[in-house]
User: Which sequence fits this backbone?
């Protein structure tokens, strides 16, 4: 029942949503008497996605939900027992049964803030065994959420602030929860709405949608609606047979457009009338089921003008194929001419909605100066992040028993930075972030205006800068979304550009650099 | 409580996991008096993914689970009411409250069978309103499952039948359910096991895993285990201090390898000893935390030889960086030399497990003749399908009220095939599929040996072939997996090859072709 009452809980990750090696390592730690050693892990990524110089941090609220509910049930422990050695000490399983995250502390970048390579999105500390078990679910919850938020932010930067962006990729997502995650975090990243109803119900994302080709093709034109009458918008006066009224308008529209009155498909018109009867105040037409120019557009105009006579205003048309920009320009011309011809000025500003495999390049074209497109629906390319479908987040041990730890592999890219750390965003005089600085947690907090010596990664000598701290409480989804846009607006143009950007620096404090040097040289810290 | 008792139910999609336009169209149908019109939709894809000539059908069992549980709860209906026009007739919401899928029929390709463009994976018939509502969740459940199964099948074809393939991409998936779906369907597609424990618990996928770098770096070497003693494998005789025994072996191993005994990292060795104490019969070493040659390999050999003295056999080593093929060859040489030197023949055949961003190209190299790699762990490139992260599945209305329907858009790629159809796989004399044929459901079932005239899409004239029917009941996941491999083995080499394959034909029966022609010409069927 709890799951029914709290629909969010159903979507939450579960403790066994983890890699088996987390459980085998848990047994290893337990057997070595180290299950409760104090440990700290950092979750970060090594390179910004999509060839850009920024990412947005997201997924924190899912992590918090997961950690609060973390508890192995009897069936979970029994399953682990079935895949671990049969002679495993039963006391280990008793230890697992008693686990929760009450001793786990998580520090995090606020949802929607800018994130850069090497700077922890999460810093997770607590008993070694349990914080190890958390690795996979936390990566699973943070990596894709941050990736899709970043992807959405890029698309918003390309679209500019005016165009409305609708996420409609549920059918392309990696299963149900992939879809819910995509809808939530593309909104956080800057989209205006989603087609995903569940994201509206569970996460408060604004939902939007109209009609598909199947609705149009389902009508032949010979159907007889049970109630063809529509009352005027003002509520006064007798109802009107909308289909008959649209038929009258069709003749005028066809004459105006130079079309034969038989050309527009009667089934499409019947579908538009049916939709208008259900949504007289929100009528939209999908124009490209048969032929935009010879059927969809005249049918739309006939129904829209019939509605207009009753005091209603149609709100939009949608195109899902062909050259979307070009068609939008021509449709707007038709709207303007019809608005003048039939003296209905509102027709000029009917929204033009487009969709059909829109990627960054296509979006740039649709968003160019003078484009008549108003709303852009994006599915596959926001949800699946085809330019780079994974963030490559990692979760690395940085301290255990109060001692810093470092992976010193021969692959320098895979080396880690040791020790429990604090991160600071250093701002320039214009308020834009200059660089992030990582320092050891025990170092004094830097002060604004104070000169600091810092080490860019791999540098031979330090440079100097002035810091400002960033630290915010966990905000709501809408606040995170606002923070995302605010953060992006503060990023300098050379870091914000999406191709070949200037790389944003993440630098080390002198003491952290000294610790790295000493561990690399094999000295105890 | 139901959700707790049936853990599968928690992962199932829910009715509101749909695009809003399905709900707005539902209202449109209802207002037009057409909610209960008999309708049929087909779910199919238009192009095979990844540049290949085949796909595997998957996700059907998730669809069945979803359809069985389909029911709008009060909270769902209330949410829909909040996003639909405020003056919507309350009787519409009563209709929604009463909906279920008891009148919906689904015909499907069996899980794991070959699927080709235009051939329906699902044929869904029932009342128009409800089968329209099912579009998005069914696409969401089928498209990614089929995509990842196909991706896994490609990787299996590249790896050949001998190499063991481990899916380990949970942390790269699109959230929790993306990970569960990926693990389930990469197993169906031909992987041997998954790191995802939940996939083992809920879906019966074999799980596998050992240890991560964090386990190794968490040990400094100064830790004192509460019980350092290990009993012999046979259970007879006194226990032995494994760490002390490994230290003795280390000297012999270092002398054999020409290394100083101080070179191997003591923390790494302590981690291996801790792991071996927990898993004496399944000891594996992760070799590249510090240095494979100067630390990981000698530490592994010391612990493996100490275990060997007690009658245990180490099972494997893992490499996660560097040139994996080259290192595997050299490690095998070291194993052979050490097996001879220390007279432990089993050491020769210790498994070499590799991982680290392995894609199709890297896999081909690792699977080449003479490779000493035994197990290959693949994460990102199986789970996220970076070559093509979505299948592009569509769900199209083909009949309503017994009448065929067709989308006649000006974009020929987006045209649909009208009418309720049956699909047959036509086999050649060697048993391999020649082509699939779509015909109208009312046409007589073709007989083996009988000559048929069929129409390749866009052809000017028909060709002739001999058919054989394929029709199987819903199998278990393991059976589907076997079917997937069997199906692939029967596909001819020119269709099976992964790059620039010969395209597999999907052809139309004469009557279906005639119906297409008549609808294109604007004639009533």
Assistant:
């Amino acid at each position: 029942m709890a799951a029914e009452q709290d629909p969010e809980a159903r979507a939450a990750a579960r403790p066994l949503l983890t890699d088996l090696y987390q459980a085998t390592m848990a047994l290893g730690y337990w057997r070595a008497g180290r299950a409760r050693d104090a440990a700290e892990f950092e979750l970060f990524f090594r390179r910004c996605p999509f060839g850009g110089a920024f990412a947005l941090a997201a997924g924190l609220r899912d992590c918090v939900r997961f950690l609060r509910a973390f508890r192995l049930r009897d069936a979970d422990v029994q399953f682990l027992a079935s895949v671990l050695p049969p002679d495993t000490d039963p006391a280990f399983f008793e230890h697992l049964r008693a686990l929760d995250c009450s001793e786990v502390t998580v520090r995090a970048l606020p949802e929607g803030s800018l994130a850069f390579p090497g700077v922890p999105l999460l810093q997770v500390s607590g008993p070694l065994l349990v914080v190890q078990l958390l690795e996979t679910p936390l990566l699973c919850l943070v990596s894709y959420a941050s990736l899709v938020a970043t992807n959405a932010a890029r698309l918003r930067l390309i679209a500019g602030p005016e165009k409305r962006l609708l996420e409609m990729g549920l059918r392309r997502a990696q299963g149900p929860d992939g879809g819910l995650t995509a809808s939530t975090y593309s909104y956080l990243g800057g989209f205006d709405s989603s087609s995903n109803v569940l994201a509206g119900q569970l996460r408060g994302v604004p939902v939007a949608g109209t009609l598909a080709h199947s609705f149009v093709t389902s009508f032949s034109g010979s159907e007889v609606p049970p109630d063809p009458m529509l009352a005027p918008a003002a509520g006064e006066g007798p109802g009107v047979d909308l289909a008959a009224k649209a038929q009258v308008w069709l003749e005028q529209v066809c004459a105006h457009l130079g079309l034969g009155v038989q050309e527009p498909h009667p089934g499409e018109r019947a579908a538009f009338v049916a939709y208008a009867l259900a949504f007289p105040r929100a009528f939209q037409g999908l124009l490209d089921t048969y032929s935009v120019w010879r059927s969809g557009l005249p049918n739309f105009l006939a129904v829209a003008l019939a509605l207009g006579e009753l005091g209603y205003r149609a709100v939009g048309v949608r195109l899902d194929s062909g050259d979307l920009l070009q068609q939008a320009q021509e449709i707007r011309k038709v709207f303007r001419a019809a608005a003048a011809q039939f003296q209905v000025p509102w027709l000029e500003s009917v929204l033009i909605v487009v969709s059909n495999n829109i990627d960054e390049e296509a979006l740039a074209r649709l968003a160019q100066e003078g484009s008549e497109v108003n709303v852009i629906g994006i599915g596959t390319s926001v949800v699946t992040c085809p330019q780079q479908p994974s963030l490559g987040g990692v979760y690395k041990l940085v301290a255990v028993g109060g001692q810093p730890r470092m992976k010193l592999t021969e692959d320098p890219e895979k080396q880690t930075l040791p020790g429990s750390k604090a991160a600071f965003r250093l701002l320039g005089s214009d308020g834009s972030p200059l660089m992030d600085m990582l320092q050891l947690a025990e170092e004094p907090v830097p002060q604004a205006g104070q000169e600091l010596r810092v080490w860019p990664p791999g540098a031979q000598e330090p440079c100097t800068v002035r810091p400002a701290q960033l630290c915010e409480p966990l905000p709501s989804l809408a606040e995170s979304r606002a923070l995302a846009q605010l953060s992006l607006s503060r990023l300098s143009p050379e870091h914000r550009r999406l191709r070949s950007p200037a790389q944003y620096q993440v630098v080390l404090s002198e003491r952290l650099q000294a610790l790295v040097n000493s561990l690399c040289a094999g000295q105890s810290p």
